[in-house]
Protein backbone atom coordinates (compact mmCIF):
# COMPACT_ATOMS: atom_id res chain seq x y z
CA UNK A 1 0.00 0.00 0.00
CA UNK A 2 2.87 2.34 0.83
CA UNK A 3 3.73 2.62 -2.88
CA UNK A 4 0.24 3.64 -3.92
CA UNK A 5 0.57 7.30 -2.99
CA UNK A 6 2.70 9.80 -1.13
CA UNK A 7 0.20 9.78 1.74
CA UNK A 8 1.97 12.29 3.97
CA UNK A 9 2.03 14.95 1.26
CA UNK A 10 -1.55 14.57 0.09
CA UNK A 11 -3.56 17.77 -0.27
CA UNK A 12 -7.35 17.93 -0.19
CA UNK A 13 -8.45 16.92 -3.66
CA UNK A 14 -9.84 14.25 -5.95
CA UNK A 15 -7.89 11.11 -6.68
CA UNK A 16 -9.24 8.27 -8.72
CA UNK A 17 -10.05 5.18 -6.67
CA UNK A 18 -11.27 1.74 -7.74
CA UNK A 19 -15.01 1.97 -7.17
CA UNK A 20 -18.01 4.15 -6.41
CA UNK A 21 -21.45 2.92 -5.40
CA UNK A 22 -24.74 4.04 -6.93
CA UNK A 23 -28.43 3.64 -6.29
CA UNK A 24 -31.22 4.84 -8.56
CA UNK A 25 -34.65 6.08 -7.52
CA UNK A 26 -37.23 5.18 -10.19
CA UNK A 27 -40.99 4.60 -10.17
CA UNK A 28 -41.20 5.91 -6.63
CA UNK A 29 -38.66 3.55 -5.07
CA UNK A 30 -34.97 2.98 -4.49
CA UNK A 31 -33.32 0.17 -6.47
CA UNK A 32 -30.41 -2.13 -5.63
CA UNK A 33 -26.94 -0.83 -4.72
CA UNK A 34 -24.69 -0.96 -7.79
CA UNK A 35 -20.90 -1.11 -7.67
CA UNK A 36 -19.28 0.92 -10.42
CA UNK A 37 -15.73 1.55 -11.57
CA UNK A 38 -16.73 4.25 -14.06
CA UNK A 39 -15.88 7.82 -12.99
CA UNK A 40 -18.48 9.53 -15.17
CA UNK A 41 -22.28 9.55 -15.16
CA UNK A 42 -24.53 9.59 -18.22
CA UNK A 43 -26.84 12.58 -17.76
CA UNK A 44 -29.70 14.14 -19.69
CA UNK A 45 -28.89 17.69 -20.76
CA UNK A 46 -32.17 18.90 -19.22
CA UNK A 47 -31.65 17.13 -15.87
CA UNK A 48 -32.99 19.13 -12.92
CA UNK A 49 -29.67 18.96 -11.09
CA UNK A 50 -28.02 20.93 -13.87
CA UNK A 51 -30.67 23.61 -14.35
CA UNK A 52 -32.36 24.07 -11.01
CA UNK A 53 -29.73 22.84 -8.59
CA UNK A 54 -31.81 19.88 -7.49
CA UNK A 55 -28.82 18.18 -5.91
CA UNK A 56 -27.08 17.85 -2.57
CA UNK A 57 -23.89 16.37 -1.20
CA UNK A 58 -22.46 15.30 2.13
CA UNK A 59 -18.97 14.77 3.50
CA UNK A 60 -17.55 12.38 6.08
CA UNK A 61 -14.30 10.51 6.60
CA UNK A 62 -13.03 6.98 7.13
CA UNK A 63 -10.03 6.60 9.46
CA UNK A 64 -7.45 3.81 9.45
CA UNK A 65 -6.87 3.36 13.16
CA UNK A 66 -3.79 2.18 15.07
CA UNK A 67 -5.73 -0.92 16.25
CA UNK A 68 -6.00 -2.00 12.59
CA UNK A 69 -9.70 -1.19 12.26
CA UNK A 70 -11.29 1.34 9.96
CA UNK A 71 -13.89 3.66 11.48
CA UNK A 72 -16.29 6.27 10.15
CA UNK A 73 -17.56 9.15 12.28
CA UNK A 74 -21.29 9.72 12.92
CA UNK A 75 -22.62 8.62 9.49
CA UNK A 76 -26.17 8.65 10.88
CA UNK A 77 -25.83 12.42 11.32
CA UNK A 78 -24.86 12.87 7.67
CA UNK A 79 -27.82 10.72 6.64
CA UNK A 80 -30.17 12.86 8.76
CA UNK A 81 -28.80 16.11 7.34
CA UNK A 82 -29.14 14.83 3.79
CA UNK A 83 -32.73 13.81 4.53
CA UNK A 84 -33.44 17.34 5.74
CA UNK A 85 -32.03 18.72 2.49
CA UNK A 86 -34.07 16.23 0.45
CA UNK A 87 -37.28 17.42 2.12
CA UNK A 88 -36.35 21.02 1.36
CA UNK A 89 -35.82 20.53 -2.37
CA UNK A 90 -38.39 17.81 -3.00
CA UNK A 91 -35.99 14.93 -3.47
CA UNK A 92 -36.89 11.51 -2.07
CA UNK A 93 -35.13 10.85 1.24
CA UNK A 94 -32.31 8.33 1.27
CA UNK A 95 -33.14 5.99 4.16
CA UNK A 96 -30.45 5.96 6.88
CA UNK A 97 -29.90 2.19 6.48
CA UNK A 98 -29.31 2.55 2.73
CA UNK A 99 -26.97 5.51 3.31
CA UNK A 100 -24.91 3.60 5.87
CA UNK A 101 -24.88 0.39 3.81
CA UNK A 102 -23.48 2.33 0.87
CA UNK A 103 -20.88 4.11 3.04
CA UNK A 104 -19.66 0.76 4.37
CA UNK A 105 -19.59 -0.79 0.93
CA UNK A 106 -17.66 1.98 -0.80
CA UNK A 107 -15.09 2.20 2.01
CA UNK A 108 -14.52 -1.58 2.01
CA UNK A 109 -14.25 -1.72 -1.79
CA UNK A 110 -11.59 0.99 -1.76
CA UNK A 111 -9.65 -0.28 1.23
CA UNK A 112 -6.28 0.11 -0.49
CA UNK A 113 -6.91 3.86 -0.75
CA UNK A 114 -7.42 4.39 2.98
CA UNK A 115 -4.23 6.19 4.05
CA UNK A 116 -2.11 4.71 6.85
CA UNK A 117 -2.65 6.08 10.35
CA UNK A 118 0.80 7.64 10.63
CA UNK A 119 0.33 9.77 7.50
CA UNK A 120 -2.40 11.91 9.06
CA UNK A 121 -4.37 11.55 5.82
CA UNK A 122 -7.86 10.01 5.65
CA UNK A 123 -10.35 8.68 3.14
CA UNK A 124 -12.93 11.38 2.39
CA UNK A 125 -16.38 9.97 1.64
CA UNK A 126 -18.58 12.12 -0.57
CA UNK A 127 -22.26 11.14 -0.96
CA UNK A 128 -24.02 12.95 -3.82
CA UNK A 129 -27.66 13.02 -4.81
CA UNK A 130 -28.90 14.45 -8.12
CA UNK A 131 -32.21 14.87 -9.93
CA UNK A 132 -31.75 13.19 -13.30
CA UNK A 133 -35.04 13.58 -15.20
CA UNK A 134 -35.47 16.14 -17.96
CA UNK A 135 -37.51 19.22 -17.01
CA UNK A 136 -37.65 22.61 -18.64
CA UNK A 137 -40.30 24.08 -16.39
CA UNK A 138 -39.23 24.40 -12.76
CA UNK A 139 -40.46 21.06 -11.43
CA UNK A 140 -38.86 18.30 -9.38
CA UNK A 141 -37.29 15.36 -11.14
CA UNK A 142 -39.06 11.99 -11.26
CA UNK A 143 -35.81 10.04 -11.07
CA UNK A 144 -32.71 10.42 -8.92
CA UNK A 145 -29.23 9.05 -8.59
CA UNK A 146 -27.62 8.72 -5.18
CA UNK A 147 -23.94 7.87 -5.39
CA UNK A 148 -20.96 7.80 -3.07
CA UNK A 149 -17.42 8.40 -4.20
CA UNK A 150 -14.29 8.37 -2.07
CA UNK A 151 -10.90 10.03 -2.33
CA UNK A 152 -7.85 9.98 -0.05
CA UNK A 153 -7.23 13.45 1.39
CA UNK A 154 -4.74 15.41 3.43
CA UNK A 155 -5.42 18.65 5.33
CA UNK A 156 -7.96 21.17 3.96
CA UNK A 157 -6.05 24.17 5.30
CA UNK A 158 -2.30 24.66 5.13
CA UNK A 159 -0.35 22.86 7.82
CA UNK A 160 -3.24 20.88 9.30
CA UNK A 161 -3.43 21.84 12.97
CA UNK A 162 -1.68 25.17 12.42
CA UNK A 163 -2.98 28.72 12.63
CA UNK A 164 -4.00 30.54 9.46
CA UNK A 165 -5.47 33.98 8.72
CA UNK A 166 -9.08 34.54 7.55
CA UNK A 167 -10.80 37.55 6.02
CA UNK A 168 -14.22 39.22 6.14
CA UNK A 169 -15.23 40.59 2.72
CA UNK A 170 -18.59 42.21 3.36
CA UNK A 171 -19.96 42.30 -0.16
CA UNK A 172 -20.19 38.51 -0.13
CA UNK A 173 -22.83 36.53 1.75
CA UNK A 174 -23.11 33.02 3.03
CA UNK A 175 -25.71 31.63 0.68
CA UNK A 176 -29.31 32.02 1.77
CA UNK A 177 -30.87 28.56 1.30
CA UNK A 178 -28.84 27.17 4.18
CA UNK A 179 -31.37 28.73 6.56
CA UNK A 180 -34.27 26.71 5.27
CA UNK A 181 -33.10 23.22 6.15
CA UNK A 182 -31.43 22.87 2.77
CA UNK A 183 -27.80 22.10 3.38
CA UNK A 184 -24.80 21.47 1.21
CA UNK A 185 -26.31 22.14 -2.20
CA UNK A 186 -23.81 23.00 -4.91
CA UNK A 187 -25.24 26.45 -5.62
CA UNK A 188 -24.27 27.60 -2.14
CA UNK A 189 -20.69 26.66 -2.79
CA UNK A 190 -20.59 28.12 -6.30
CA UNK A 191 -21.75 31.38 -4.69
CA UNK A 192 -18.73 31.27 -2.37
CA UNK A 193 -16.13 30.73 -5.10
CA UNK A 194 -15.50 34.40 -5.81
CA UNK A 195 -15.15 35.38 -2.16
CA UNK A 196 -12.84 32.41 -1.66
CA UNK A 197 -10.68 33.44 -4.62
CA UNK A 198 -10.43 37.02 -3.35
CA UNK A 199 -9.40 35.72 0.08
CA UNK A 200 -6.72 33.44 -1.41
CA UNK A 201 -5.44 36.15 -3.74
CA UNK A 202 -4.83 38.33 -0.70
CA UNK A 203 -2.98 35.56 1.13
CA UNK A 204 -5.73 34.41 3.51
CA UNK A 205 -6.60 30.77 4.11
CA UNK A 206 -10.32 31.37 3.71
CA UNK A 207 -13.13 33.90 3.53
CA UNK A 208 -15.22 34.53 6.61
CA UNK A 209 -18.90 35.51 6.55
CA UNK A 210 -21.02 37.89 8.58
CA UNK A 211 -24.79 37.47 8.63
CA UNK A 212 -26.25 38.49 5.28
CA UNK A 213 -28.98 40.76 6.67
CA UNK A 214 -27.23 43.12 9.06
CA UNK A 215 -23.56 42.34 8.51
CA UNK A 216 -23.26 42.46 12.25
CA UNK A 217 -22.93 38.90 13.50
CA UNK A 218 -20.48 36.10 12.84
CA UNK A 219 -21.72 33.33 10.54
CA UNK A 220 -19.04 30.86 9.45
CA UNK A 221 -16.06 30.29 7.18
CA UNK A 222 -16.28 29.13 3.57
CA UNK A 223 -16.29 25.43 4.36
CA UNK A 224 -16.34 25.25 8.14
CA UNK A 225 -18.13 26.52 11.25
CA UNK A 226 -16.57 28.97 13.70
CA UNK A 227 -15.92 28.72 17.43
CA UNK A 228 -14.24 31.06 19.90
CA UNK A 229 -12.88 30.33 23.37
CA UNK A 230 -12.90 32.73 26.31
CA UNK A 231 -13.37 32.54 30.08
CA UNK A 232 -13.54 28.75 30.01
CA UNK A 233 -16.42 28.97 27.51
CA UNK A 234 -16.88 27.51 24.02
CA UNK A 235 -18.87 30.06 21.97
CA UNK A 236 -20.28 29.30 18.53
CA UNK A 237 -22.75 31.20 16.33
CA UNK A 238 -26.46 30.57 16.30
CA UNK A 239 -27.55 31.53 12.81
CA UNK A 240 -30.05 30.31 10.25
CA UNK A 241 -27.60 30.76 7.40
CA UNK A 242 -24.83 28.40 8.46
CA UNK A 243 -24.43 24.67 8.04
CA UNK A 244 -25.27 22.67 11.18
CA UNK A 245 -21.81 21.13 11.39
CA UNK A 246 -21.53 17.63 12.82
CA UNK A 247 -17.98 18.40 13.94
CA UNK A 248 -19.15 21.51 15.79
CA UNK A 249 -21.98 19.57 17.42
CA UNK A 250 -19.41 17.00 18.59
CA UNK A 251 -17.01 19.68 19.85
CA UNK A 252 -19.81 21.31 21.85
CA UNK A 253 -20.35 17.96 23.56
CA UNK A 254 -16.63 17.44 24.19
CA UNK A 255 -16.27 20.99 25.55
CA UNK A 256 -19.09 20.26 27.96
CA UNK A 257 -17.44 16.96 28.92
CA UNK A 258 -14.26 18.93 29.71
CA UNK A 259 -16.21 21.22 32.03
CA UNK A 260 -16.33 24.22 29.70
CA UNK A 261 -19.48 26.28 29.41
CA UNK A 262 -21.00 26.07 25.94
CA UNK A 263 -22.84 28.99 24.37
CA UNK A 264 -24.55 28.84 21.00
CA UNK A 265 -25.76 32.35 20.31
CA UNK A 266 -25.37 35.39 18.08
CA UNK A 267 -21.80 36.69 18.15
CA UNK A 268 -21.42 40.37 17.22
CA UNK A 269 -18.31 40.98 15.12
CA UNK A 270 -16.72 43.20 17.81
CA UNK A 271 -16.84 40.31 20.25
CA UNK A 272 -14.10 38.66 18.18
CA UNK A 273 -11.63 40.94 19.95
CA UNK A 274 -12.47 39.24 23.28
CA UNK A 275 -11.70 35.63 22.31
CA UNK A 276 -8.53 34.01 23.62
CA UNK A 277 -8.65 31.38 20.87
CA UNK A 278 -10.60 30.94 17.65
CA UNK A 279 -10.96 28.12 15.18
CA UNK A 280 -12.72 26.78 12.11
CA UNK A 281 -14.20 23.30 12.42
CA UNK A 282 -15.63 20.75 10.03
CA UNK A 283 -15.05 17.33 8.50
CA UNK A 284 -12.50 18.66 6.04
CA UNK A 285 -11.12 21.38 8.35
CA UNK A 286 -11.15 19.16 11.51
CA UNK A 287 -10.08 21.99 13.84
CA UNK A 288 -8.14 24.63 11.96
CA UNK A 289 -6.99 27.31 14.41
CA UNK A 290 -7.32 30.93 13.28
CA UNK A 291 -4.35 33.27 13.73
CA UNK A 292 -6.28 36.44 12.89
CA UNK A 293 -9.37 37.68 11.06
CA UNK A 294 -9.17 40.91 9.06
CA UNK A 295 -12.25 42.96 8.22
CA UNK A 296 -11.31 44.54 4.91
CA UNK A 297 -13.98 47.25 5.12
CA UNK A 298 -13.19 48.55 8.59
CA UNK A 299 -9.50 47.70 8.49
CA UNK A 300 -9.85 45.96 11.86
CA UNK A 301 -7.74 42.94 12.74
CA UNK A 302 -8.83 40.42 15.36
CA UNK A 303 -5.74 38.62 16.58
CA UNK A 304 -5.71 35.19 18.22
CA UNK A 305 -1.98 34.48 18.05
CA UNK A 306 0.28 32.55 15.70
CA UNK A 307 0.16 29.37 17.77
CA UNK A 308 -2.94 27.23 18.37
CA UNK A 309 -4.28 27.74 21.91
CA UNK A 310 -4.45 25.07 24.63
CA UNK A 311 -8.24 24.54 24.54
CA UNK A 312 -8.29 24.16 20.76
CA UNK A 313 -5.41 21.70 21.03
CA UNK A 314 -7.14 19.66 23.71
CA UNK A 315 -10.39 19.54 21.70
CA UNK A 316 -8.50 18.62 18.54
CA UNK A 317 -6.55 15.83 20.20
CA UNK A 318 -9.60 14.38 21.87
CA UNK A 319 -11.75 14.50 18.73
CA UNK A 320 -8.98 12.86 16.69
CA UNK A 321 -8.49 10.34 19.49
CA UNK A 322 -12.12 9.27 19.26
CA UNK A 323 -12.10 9.18 15.46
CA UNK A 324 -8.99 6.96 15.51
CA UNK A 325 -10.30 4.64 18.21
CA UNK A 326 -7.63 5.78 20.70
CA UNK A 327 -9.86 7.62 23.16
CA UNK A 328 -12.92 6.05 24.68
CA UNK A 329 -15.92 6.71 22.42
CA UNK A 330 -18.36 7.26 25.23
CA UNK A 331 -21.03 8.88 23.05
CA UNK A 332 -20.98 6.03 20.53
CA UNK A 333 -19.99 8.26 17.60
CA UNK A 334 -17.80 5.91 15.59
CA UNK A 335 -18.80 2.95 13.47
CA UNK A 336 -16.30 0.20 12.65
CA UNK A 337 -16.42 -0.47 8.91
CA UNK A 338 -13.47 -2.82 8.59
CA UNK A 339 -12.65 -5.02 11.59
N1 LIG B 1 -19.87 24.76 7.05
C1 LIG B 1 -19.77 24.54 5.72
C2 LIG B 1 -20.19 25.62 4.79
C3 LIG B 1 -19.27 23.32 5.26
O1 LIG B 1 -19.14 23.09 3.96
C4 LIG B 1 -18.87 22.34 6.18
C5 LIG B 1 -18.35 21.06 5.72
O2 LIG B 1 -19.05 20.14 5.58
C6 LIG B 1 -19.03 22.60 7.55
C7 LIG B 1 -19.51 23.84 7.95
C8 LIG B 1 -18.68 21.57 8.58
O3 LIG B 1 -19.68 20.60 8.70
P1 LIG B 1 -19.34 19.14 9.17
O4 LIG B 1 -18.68 19.27 10.49
O5 LIG B 1 -20.66 18.46 9.27
O6 LIG B 1 -18.45 18.55 8.14
C1 LIG C 1 -16.61 18.98 4.44
O1 LIG C 1 -15.96 19.37 5.41
O2 LIG C 1 -17.04 17.82 4.34
C2 LIG C 1 -16.93 19.86 3.35
O3 LIG C 1 -17.88 19.60 2.69
C3 LIG C 1 -16.07 21.00 3.08
C4 LIG C 1 -15.81 21.26 1.62
C5 LIG C 1 -14.86 20.28 1.02
C6 LIG C 1 -17.04 21.48 0.82
Instruction: Please report the total strand number as a whole number.
Output: 18
Characterize the largest beta sheet: strand count, sense, and whether it forms a barrel.
9 strands, antiparallel
Indicate the radius of gyration in whole angstroms.
Answer: 20 Å
In CATH terms, the superfamily of the largest domain is D-amino Acid Aminotransferase, subunit A, domain 2
Helix content: 10-25%
What ligand molecules are bound, each kind once?
Answer: pyridoxal-5'-phosphate, 2-OXO-4-methylpentanoic acid
Q: At the first level of CATH, what is the class of the largest domain?
A: Alpha Beta
What would the average pLDDT be, to the nearest integer?
94
Shape: globular
Beta-strand residue percentage: 25-35%
Structural class label = alpha+beta
Q: What is the straight-line distance between the termini?
A: 18 Å
Total count of helical runs of at least 4 residues? 7
Brief digest:
Helices cover 21% and strands 29% of the residues. The chain has 339 residues and is α+β, with helices and mostly antiparallel strands.
List the helices and strands and how they pair.
Elements: E1 20-26, E2 29-30, E3 34-36, H1 48-51, E4 55-57, E5 60-64, E6 70-73, H2 75-88, H3 96-109, E7 122-131, E8 144-153, E9 164-168, H4 186-190, H5 193-201, E10 206-210, E11 218-221, E12 225-230, E13 233-237, H6 246-257, E14 261-265, E15 277-282, E16 286-295, E17 300-303, H7 310-323, E18 334-338
Parallel strand pairs: 9-10, 9-16, 13-14
Antiparallel strand pairs: 1-2, 1-3, 1-8, 4-7, 5-6, 5-7, 6-18, 7-8, 10-11, 12-13, 12-15, 15-16, 16-17
Bound molecules: pyridoxal-5'-phosphate and 2-OXO-4-methylpentanoic acid (COI).
